[in-house]
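Look over this one:
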Amino acid sequence: MRPLIAVENVQKAFHGEPALRGVSFEVAPSQLTVIIGPSGCGKSTLLRCMNGLELFDAGRVRIGEVSIERHGGVRPRDWRVALRLLREEVGMVFQSFNLFPHLTVLENAIKAPMVVLKQSRAEAEAKARALLAKVGLEDRIGYYPSQLSGGQQQRAAIARALAMSPKVMLYDEPTSALDPSLVQEVLQIMRQLDEEGMTQVVVTHEMRFAREAADTILMLHAGELVETGPPATLFGSPRDPRTREFLRSVM
């Protein structure tokens, strides 16, 4: 089966300091892939390169039939078009929710489908209501973000991302801003999407979730992909000493 996601030799530096050192991996359709590693190792930068929020210096990212690539720092002429097409394939969920504070939960969920996909309000609203019910917010559609708990805000953000019918969902530390009591309600939505066949890539420090839910674990250290494998292998018998050291520090 052809991978749905292919990341090839992606490199990124900030002010001359390498953040990603030639990262390459693939994700098959319907897989849940978890990226782990110490703070500052490049996990969030990698996600941002995958959906075009960061302009990487070299390499290639393909999601579905859309790819963006750079060689020797050269930006292709059709880069902006490719970025737009890529972002239509990807839903992104951030640690800080990023909901529009002046819009209700329902309005947050219908805005992008109406503006980007040119859906009618009726069409966008019907889908948004179904998605908000899926994440347990059918009784909160008229609330503003400030009236919701952190877990509810993150579930609203997931529904908003799903409203664009993405092929892939990317999550950047989706539970790090939540109280411990609210973490599981967000992780449960991700487990449910996995059961439904959604392809997901998750940056997280939730090791129990990674161990129980992931199909594949990617271990980053100092911008380098040092180890990859199924949870049983990576948690049970990691090969790389940097992986072993990291797991000892967090488990």
Summary: The chain has one domain: 5-250. Residues 112 and 118 are 9 Å apart (CA to CA). The mean pLDDT is 93.
